[in-house]
Amino acid sequence: MLTNDGQENMRVCLINPPRIHPKSWGKPTVFQPLRIAYVAAMLEKEHKVKIIDAPTEGMNNIEQIDETKYRVGLKNEQIAERIKNWSPDVVGITIPFAGWSKTAFEAASTVKNVDKDIVTVVDGQYPSARPEDCLSRPDIDFVIIGEAEHTMFELVGALDEGNMQRLKKIRGIAFIENGKKIFTPSRPPIQDLDSLPFPARHLLPMEMYYAAVKENPIRGEIRKPWTTVITSRGCPYNCVFCSVHTVDGRTWRARSPQNVADEIEQLIRTYNIKQIDFYDDNMTLDRKRMESICDLIMERNLDFEWYIPTGVRADTLDEDLLAKMKAAGCKRIFIAPESGVQRVVDQVVKKNLDLRKVENAVISARKVGIKVACFFIIGLIGETKDDIKATIDYAYKLKKLGADRFYFSFATPLYGTELYEQAKRGGFLREDFSDETLAAAEPLIETSEFTLDDLHELCAQANLVNLAFSWDKIVKFIRNPKKAINMILEKRGKLLRK
């Protein structure tokens, strides 16, 4: 396998497995697996790499699993055919969410059925939170715990050499040797994110993403050539429901403004990108860095629209920063109060966020011309039905202040989170709780304060805030009544499905 020039020693195929899509989310859309593309870029330094983005390449293969969810993506036979044709030595499969573990393990089984000697590796949030469960699967050879870029590179290099002793020196992996589970010491988070190569988007089906959003715009906004960019990783906060730390840790690390601007410039030049979603967990945590990114975008005349759909902390924003973000092309931000009750935010969510800062951020964003969407979570342990009703009232308050979209999610006890431990310890998990029920976007926690049916009803009430009409919308609807009726019916259908 080793070549004289040290290049393309191994053939590595990285798979984004088929997605389990909740019916309540409406029509499936596409997502670019950026973390896989980061791993691919690292591996390309010495190996031959291929990416199979199964949900996108098979986006027209939609199979109903049950009354709550679909399977979206390439069929197992199609994955097998691609593996057979390309003959990889190693296959890496990413599992970013427990609800998609079923299709990931099916993909691993498919690979082994093609050739049992292919080495299978899993990484992502689920393997990082539940490595032992992954190791118990007969078709999984290695588990990566934490960030995968350096770990996968070292792992493939050791496999290339066939050096078992070197394997044991790789930090952040788990495997079985002679029937015994081996866990190596944990790998520290990558401190210098600028040292990572830009994601290998040339291995992704970029044209398919463009075609998909043109037909079905993401959030109704992303409809042009687009991509995602990550400018920072990690979160120093302790929200009970958040699983980010299982992979990225609790230390916030950021790329330099220069490095971010270089990537954006490359994207516009190479891929004609017109819209970007920044997928940071805390993009605005460092105000000066955020200002510098905006300054460089304007100095280089980088013409594109951008959004932060993963959320920013409201207490990092003010009118001056938002005005600069608007001037640099920002169209929408998402903020996450989580609850409209300060006690719940402080003691239940443990978010350490003053709700007055949320209101100020909404007012300031509206003033400078940036649209605001808000995330809320209902059904947390320690929350009451009255708290949830107060949260709905708070959403209406934010709507009056200028926010225009509201997303209400059931509290989801993801593995590796404090919420999961609370629910498991207190006996609050739904009786049929499993990886598969996690995929359905259904309530999974029931306490003495609320039932599952209560949460369904309250969520339907909460989503009515999105149906509240402003006068400008009424005028538009009068001019186009057919479009108005179709929109009302579509939103009504989504509420009923919830």
Task: Give an account of the 3D structure.
The chain is 42% helix and 18% strand. The strands form four sheets. It has a seven-stranded mixed β-sheet, sandwiched between helices. Strands 11-14-15-16-17-18 form a six-stranded parallel β-sheet. Strands 2-5-4 form a three-stranded antiparallel β-sheet. Strand 15 (305-312), helix 13 (319-327) and strand 16 form a beta-alpha-beta unit. Residues 1-6 and 492-498 have low confidence and may be disordered. It has three domains: 11-179, 3-Layer(aba) Sandwich (Rossmann fold), CATH 3.40.50.2300; 213-467, TIM Barrel (Alpha-Beta Barrel), CATH 3.20.20.70; 471-498, no CATH class. Helix 11 packs parallel to helix 12. The N and C termini lie far apart (52 Å). It contains 21 helices and 18 strands. The chain has 498 residues and is an alpha/beta fold.
